[in-house]
Amino acid sequence: MRTAIFDLPTVPAGAQEDPVEYEPRTDPPDWARAGVPDGTEHYVFDHICREVRGDDLEAFEQLAPGGTYMDIPQELRRYDDQSFTDKYKRLEWDLPSRTITAHIARDGYWYIHPETHRTLSIREAARLQTFPDWFRFAGFPSNRYTQIGNAVPPLLSYALGTALLAADASSDGSVVPRGAALLRATADEYWEALGLWELLVQEVVFNGRASHGRVREFLERYPTPEHAAEMRAPRHDHERRAASLACRVLKEKGGAGDLESIRRTAGVPPAAALLIESLANGGRPPRSESTLRVAERVSGVHRTGSLNGVSQVTLSRIADFGTDPGSNQLLLDIGRNVCLAENPLCDECPLAQACSFRRHGSIVGDRSAKAVS
Ligand code: SF4
After folding, report:
1. Which tens digits make up the pLDDT trace of 309-332?
2. Scanning 50, 252, 285, 371, which has its CA 20 to 30 A from the CA of 132?
C-alpha cells in the first residue's frame, strides 16, 4: 500500500476536484509517474472518491488499520454480521492491499483508506492495479472503478510477457519449440505407463477403427507381442496382422519398449507412428476446434466423415487421453499457430512428415484449407 499510493495527495471523502495538484508526500514508484504527458507533471487525474454516509463515517472512525466489520461496535453494524463478517476492511500501509475487484464499483467498503475515513479514490485503486498515472479511464466513476477492477494489472502482464519472450529466446527458433521438446522428453516415460503394444494393436492391427472393448478383448488373449508372435493358425485378418506385426516389432532392438523401435518397424505407417507417439505422450488438450483440426488433418479423416484409417476413438484419445501437459501444449500450439484453418503453415509444422493432409492436400469432408507446400 505504501509503495503504491503514499505519495498521492491526501483528499477527503467525496473529493471531486479533477485533476488535483500533485505534490508528492514521498517518492512515487518509478512506473507510476513515468510517461505523464508534458504540462501535466504537477497534476494527478481521477483522484476522486465517494462521499461517506454519516453512519459509515462513525463506523470507519472505529476501525484501526487492518480492522474489519467485526471490529466496529454492534450498534454501528448495518449489515447482518453473520453473513458479512468482513464487509468493511481498513487497509494497512505496510501490507498488500486486498485484491482490487470490479465489486469496488458497487461499494468500496473492502478498501477503506489506511488513514483517511473514506474508501479508495479511482486513482488509488488504479495505482494498486499498477496503472501508471498517464492512463485515464472512461465514463462515470462506477465505470472507471469497473475498468480498474476487471483489468489484468499492467505490471503482471509485463512480467508474463517478459517471461514468455525469455522462453522464446532460449528456444531453437522453431515455431513450437517448447511443446515439441516436452513431447520428446516425456515420450519414453509415458510408454512404460501406457504400453506400446496396446497402442500398436489399436492403431495398426485394428487400423484405429475398433472399439475399446474389441481392443481390450484382443489384448486379454494376446497381452504382449510375444503372445501374438506365438499365435497358432490365426483365423482373422486382424490376427494375421497382429502376428506379423509382433514378429517385426520383436526383431527391433528395443522391441515393444521404445519409440525408435516402433518408428523403425516395417509396416507401421508414419501417420500411425505419429499418432502413437502423440497418444503415448498423454496429451489432454482441451477438446477445442483447433486441436481436433490438427488431429483430423494428421490422420486424414474428417471427424464427421468416414472412419477410414483412424477412428473417432483415436481422435478423441488424441484430444482427451492422458495427463501430460507437454503434449497438450504441443497440440494447442500447433493448432493455434501453425495448423491454421486457412493456409496452414505446413513448412514449419513438426507433424508435417506424418500428416495426411500435407501429403494429399485435403481430407475427407474438409474443403476449408489447402496445404502450403
Ligand atoms: S502439416 Fe500442415 S496440415 Fe498437417 S498438421 Fe501440420 S500444419 Fe496442419
Report:
1. 344 444 444 444 334 445 556 667
2. 50
